[in-house]
Design brief:
The protein has 248 residues and is mainly beta. It has a single domain, classed as monomeric porin ompg (Porin). It has one helix and 13 strands; from the N terminus they run αβββββββββββββ. Strands 1-2-3-5-6-7-8-9-10-11-12-13 form a twelve-stranded antiparallel barrel. A hairpin with a 5-residue loop joins strand 5 and strand 6.
Length: 248
C-alpha cells in the first residue's frame, strides 16, 4: 500500500509541461539509453548508492561510493565504456570493502532515423576479474542488453532493455527494464521504472524504482533515485551526477 501511495504521489506532484533538453545518460535508472555520447565526446557518470537486501536482522548492506562510468565516443554511433566502483559489503558474517571487478564494454547504436521516433542500440560489457579478493567473482563474465526507445509525445518517452548476463557459471540471467520518462521543464525530468531478472532462467525477481534529474547547465546533470523490491526484500537510494565533456 505504501509503495502504491508513493508512486501516485510522485506522479501527481509533477505537472508535465515540455520535454527537457537534458543530457542523455545511463544513470540513474536501470535502463541503458539507446543513444551514444557522440564522436570525440567524453561523458562521466558517477554516483553513490546505499542498498539493503534481505530480512532486516540479517540484511546484506551494500555501499557503492563511488561508482564511475566513463563513456567515450569513437564515432557518431559507437562508444567505448569503462565501469569501476568502490564497494562496501556488510552483513552479520561479512565486512569487506575494495574495488569491484572492472567492466569494459561498448555501445553501438544500430538504428536512428530523423523520420522515426525510435532508436535502437546494443550494449555489451566484459567483466574482468580484477577486483579485491573478497569482492571479485574470480571469473570472466558478460553483460549484454538490447536497448530500444520511443518518443511517444512531446513530453513523454519510454525506453526498455532486454538482456542476458552470465557471470562465468550456470545458465546466466535474463534481465528486463522499462523506463517511462516525463519532461517537467527545461531543467527537471522524472522517470518511473519496473525492472527485474529471471535468475538462472528459474527464479523471477521483480523491482521498481523512480528518480529525478536536474540539469544544472548544458554539460552537467544531477540525479536522485530510489528503488524497492516488489516480490523480494530490497531497497536502495542513490545520488549522482553526469558530466559531458564535448570535443573541442
Amino acid at each position: 500500500m505504501l509503495k502504491n501511495k508513493l508512486i501516485i504521489a510522485l506522479l501527481s506532484f509533477f505537472i508535465l509541461e515540455n520535454l527537457t533538453a537534458q543530457i542523455i545518460t545511463d544513470r540513474p535508472d536501470q535502463t541503458e539509453s539507446s543513444s551514444t555520447v557522440g564522436n570525440g565526446n567524453l561523458q562521466i557518470e558517477s554516483g553513490i548508492l546505499i542498498g539493503f537486501e534481505g530480512e532486516a536482522q540479517t540484511s546484506n548492506r551494500q555501499i557503492l561510493a563511488p561508482t564511475n562510468l566513463f563513456r567515450f565516443g569513437i564515432s557518431k554511433s559507437i562508444e567505448i565504456r569503462l565501469l569501476s566502483q568502490y564497494e562496501i559489503r556488510k552483513n552479520d558474517n561479512l565486512n569487506v570493502d575494495g574495488i569491484s571487478d572492472l567492466e569494459i564494454g561498448t555501445k553501438i547504436q544500430i538504428f536512428k532515423n530523423a523520420k522515426s521516433s525510435t532508436e535502437i542500440a546494443f550494449l555489451s560489457h566484459l567483466i574482468v576479474p580484477t577486483g579485491s579478493a573478497e569482492l571479485s567473482n574470480d571469473k570472466f563474465g558478460t553483460i549484454n542488453k538490447l536497448s530500444i526507445s520511443h518518443e511517444l509525445f512531446e513530453n513523454i518517452a519510454i525506453g526498455y532493455n532486454l538482456g542476458y548476463d552470465n557471470f562465468g557459471q550456470g545458465k546466466g540471467d535474463f534481465t528486463y527494464s522499462l523506463a517511462v520518462g516525463f519532461g517537467i521543464n527545461d531543467k527537471v525530468g522524472i522517470y518511473i521504472e519496473p525492472f527485474g531478472e529471471i535468475v538462472e532462467f528459474e527464479d523471477y525477481i521483480s523491482n521498481f524504482d523512480a528518480g529525478v534529474t536536474y540539469l544544472a547547465n548544458e554539460n552537467m546533470q544531477f540525479d536522485f533515485s530510489f528503488g524497492t523490491g516488489l516480490n523480494n526484500k530490497m531497497n536502495y537510494v542513490s545520488i549522482g551526477f553526469s558530466w559531458l565533456i564535448e570535443k573541442g
